[in-house]
Amino acid sequence: MTSASLTLSARGVAGTQRFLAYAITIAALFALPLASHADGPVVAGMSQLLLGAALLAGIGLLIGFGVQGGRLLDLMLLAVSGVTAILLLRFVAAYPGTVKGGFWALVVALWLSSWLFVERLSAWDVTDRAAKRAIGLAIPLLFGVWVLVLWELLVTGFGVPKILLPAPSDIGLRFASSIPTLWADFRQTFLKAVLIGYAIGCGAGFVTAILVDKVDFLRRGLLPIGNLVSALPIIGIAPIMVMWFGFDWPSKAAVVIIMTFFPMLVNTVTGLASADRIQHDLMRTYAANYWQTLVKMRLPMALPFIFNALKINSTLALIGAIVAEFFGTPIVGMGFRISTEVGRLNVDMVWAEIAVAALAGSAFYGLVTLLERVFTFWHPSVRG
Amino acid sequence: MLNEQGPQKARSVIDIRGLSLTFETNDGPVHALSNVDLDIREGEFVSFIGPSGCGKTTLLRVIADLEKPTGGEITVNGVTPEEARLARAYGYVFQSSALYPWRTIADNVALPLEIMGLSASERKERIARNLDLVNLGGFERKYPWQLSGGMQQRASIARALAVEPHLLLMDEPFGALDEIVRDHLNEQLLKLWAKTDKTVVFVTHSIPEAVFLSTKIVVLFPRPGRIYDVIESDLPRDRTLDIRETPEFLKIAHRVREGLRAGHSYEDS
To answer: Mutating which of B111, B114, B156, B168 best tests the A interface, going by the most A Cβ atoms within 10 A?
Structure first.
């Protein structure tokens, strides 16, 4: 019956079909056990009752939608979904690995109501800019929360071994209890290797691009070599950099420099060539010299390309620094932690480091994007 | 009726003798210009008209030192085109406005002034004066992409005028605009020319535009690009759009059309 409701909801984007799916799910709730112990008896109790009540409230709301929709009802749907999620999480924590069909039917119901809420939310007709922005933020945020909840429910509900995939709650606990370690790793890998390598790599790529653009033999000689360097595998370069620059962060920064140099070089060279003939003729009629043409026309014109490279490099730099730490490092750093904790089967710590990397990487990328919007506000892709 | 006083008395601004320009291409040499003779005097409004490929834009670009001739002689203000360009002797208006989207209208007009190294106060004064001249006062802080095509082209004219050249070179500046806007800008351009007394060289493929604006119309032929006819217009200098209905206007337009037709039949044969 759970699968029946699934197919129905997948097909039924229209409201009536979803109501039907709800009804089937509710039927499943009462027909199937929520969980069982090894010796057989059906587990029932307060949580089951609460879940049923919460869901019934949800159905009541849905019927309300049929009569007349409203933002208050939408928000109540959100509240009911939230309470149901919390109850399901508590229930699964009490009966890990032993939940039954009725439980999964409720998970499906939760999924349906969250889906409905997001759909309702995106249909909200707001004119206020701040409210619009808040809704734009709320939708991906809700989606992220839902992914975490589903992850927790699935992993705990099916009793997946922690070594394969720990639940988000385990990762969260490990994160909270290891903040000093995580901070030390972050400082070593991100604040030193990534940022310094990124700055030097992007800066060198930019300056080289200007030289390559000005001097023709460099274009013919240096660009192919740059291309060759960019094709070198990081796995091969990292140990060599460790031999050259030692175990500490400079060798990781060197790997980051090699990885970020070429995207910046190629993008800037392309950007400098992006001005068309009329633009060049215009500067010529003003008898502008090389530097005036460069600063007043060609560099602003190249900015969208340069920011493209800065964005690509923001993620490349983090990957490069973490992987480089697999090849010899002092006993601190995100890559070092990942490689050693995997060996000790502390997979939750590995995930905590991954979370740090994801947060830092997204924040870095977001910052570059923000700068891009400030500096290339005039570009058709930004001004909208 | 300045030209009735005799353009011969005015100083020669552009003097072209036996000019030719051959582009070497993969398909062999292309004779863009062949044996062109032309004399343009101070205060004249000269239009180059002809079918595409006749070299009218190329001729303008040679005057502006954007192309180098391969034969013959040309002087601009008595010196070579390159010296004239380096002395910023002319303002050039392109087919598209070529305004920089990251600069406001005022800052776009300031661009050549910054390159010339003028002081901030001088720049400010020239920006205000020239934007007023093209009726764009009040749009200083707008960005080009916030303005219509006609306003953008007016801003680019203000930018060319801000250099304060005696010579204005315009390469189909209104070609991309619709007829009504073009008529309006043509009228404004004539007023501006009367007010500033500059020499204007104007490339177009529109007969009414050429006849309405010019004191002298140069009809060019393609393959190789050369001058077919030079028509001195006897229309009065202060013209309104109504003049296009008069017999005098139609007579000149007819002569221009005859010339263009001869060029086309050459092309078809």
So the answer is: B111
B94 and A284 within 8 Å at the Cβ level: the answer is no
CA-based angle A65:A66:A72, to the nearest 5? Answer: 15
What is the C-alpha separation between B46 and A13, in angstroms, rounded? 69
Q: Based on the structure, what is the number of domains in chain B?
A: 1
How do residues A164-184 score in pLDDT, each as one tens digit? 999 999 999 999 999 999 999
- Residue B95, both tokens: 């087919």
Return phi, psi of residue A221, to 5°.
Answer: -90, -40
ipTM of the complex: 0.88
Rounded Cα distance between A201 and A213, Å, is 18
Residue of chain B whose Cα is closest to the Cα of A297 = B100
Cβ neighbours of A283 in B, within 8 Å: 115
Residues 130-149 of B with CB under 8 A from A: 143, 145
Whether B97 maps to a domain, the answer reads no
The Cα B141–Cα B161 span in angstroms is: 19
Structural fold of domain A175-383: MetI-like fold (1.10.3720)
Instruction: Determine whether the interchain pair B111/A286 forms a contact, defined as Cβ–Cβ distance below 8 Å.
Output: yes
SS3 A217: helix
pLDDT one-digit tens code per residue, A228-270: 877 888 888 899 999 999 889 999 999 999 999 999 999 999 9
Give the pLDDT confidence of B67-82 residue by residue, as tens digits.
999 988 999 988 999 9
